[in-house]
Amino acid sequence: MHRKPIRIAGACALVATLATSAAACGNDDKKAACDKLQDTISQVSQSGVSQNNDPNGLARNYYNSATAMRQEGRDSGDTDVETAANDAASALEQLGQQLTATDRDGRGVPQLPNGTGLMSAGDRIRSACDN
Length: 131
What we know:
There is one protein chain. With 131 residues, this protein is mainly alpha-helical. It has one domain (3-130). It is built from five helices and no strands.
């Protein structure tokens, strides 16, 4: 039974890497979008801690946050921010899929989700928002 919290904790740790990704930006639309991305990332990180025993709830949160991030990227009016937000959203959705699969089968050796995509997306958001 302790496999789920280990996997969920790993996913939460990966999401926390995004928390410092969005920063101050250039024009007003871009800045507002980057600020919203930062808020969304912070909310995802916080909800991961509170939902550590509910992988399906956490997965739903990741999916909902991914949808918000895509919209925030579109709202930025900046191609780089939009692309980075889409990449981060895809990475969150992938984590959500991993959590759902973990909850569905509940078998196997506890594994941390692969966070390479999420960490790379966080770096791209930071870079896009800093320019």
